[in-house]
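@here heads up, posting the sequence + SMILES for the magnesium ion run so it's all in one place. Ping me if the SMILES looks off, I pulled it from an old spreadsheet.
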Amino acid sequence: MKNSDDYLPIIIRGIAHDLNNILTITMGNISLCELYIDDDKEKLKSIIKTLLSSCKRAQELISQLNLVSNFQSSKKENIPVLALLKHSVSCIGTTKIDNIYLINNSNSINIQGDPEEFRQIFLNLILNSLQAIEQSQRLKIILDNTEFEEENSDHIEPGYYLRITFQDNGAGISEENQAKIFKEKFTTKETGTGLGLIISKLLIQKNNGYINFNSKKNTGTTFNIYFRTAR
Ligand SMILES: Nc1ncnc2c1ncn2[C@@H]1O[C@H](COP(=O)(O)OP(=O)(O)OP(=O)(O)O)[C@@H](O)[C@H]1O
Ligand SMILES: [Mg+2]
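bot reply: prediction finished. Complex structure tokens:
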């Protein structure tokens, strides 16, 4: 594990990465405006609302740049997991919105951490899945609980966890690339920065969580993230 000074440049690049995500979202929403401009005023209004909230979020991120030297002291608050997931999905501005299913099978959802950091984690994982699926495919986001015993293959500390699963049936990741996806700047996308997953992993670890995944080329990809919760 790196020490916190090593994180700083990664986090700064992470903020740049999130600003880039916001631009992607903004451009997606502008394209939607073009689609609805002639005959759906109500839809247009709601897209403009989303655009404004994206701009506001960009402002927040820029102000975060000023706070980044306080990296170690991030917040410890109750995370409104469902609300944050719903918000992440709704703000993306994608025509694939109907391909996303949010399924809550959890009976214990209370976790603690920094809400802003969770928002970044969710957005990165959802965007990756959406970029991997075609119009006919789908992304399931599933919440449930799981318990880890003393010895487990993922080296997760024993305990009771909230598991959030992002399961898509999209392009999948080749075996060769599976070893590289958490490396900085690894991307298979023309406009990708290859920072989304490494930043997400650091933020997950910083909030005392874990991430693992499995994937099969042309079949799909599942990312699981785990955060401690009371039973
Ligand atoms: N759900 C997924 N399905 C298929 N491939 C994925 C998925 N998630 C990640 N990958 C692969 O892992 C690579 C690294 O992902 P990461 O989020 O770090 O960067 P990126 O998505 O390429 O760029 P950015 O996040 O900056 O837009 C991707 O380029 C892609 O090849
Ligand atoms: Mg990404």
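MO: Strands lie at 77-78, 100-104, 112-113, 139-148, 159-168, 210-216, 220-228.
MO: One more: The chain has one domain: 4-228.
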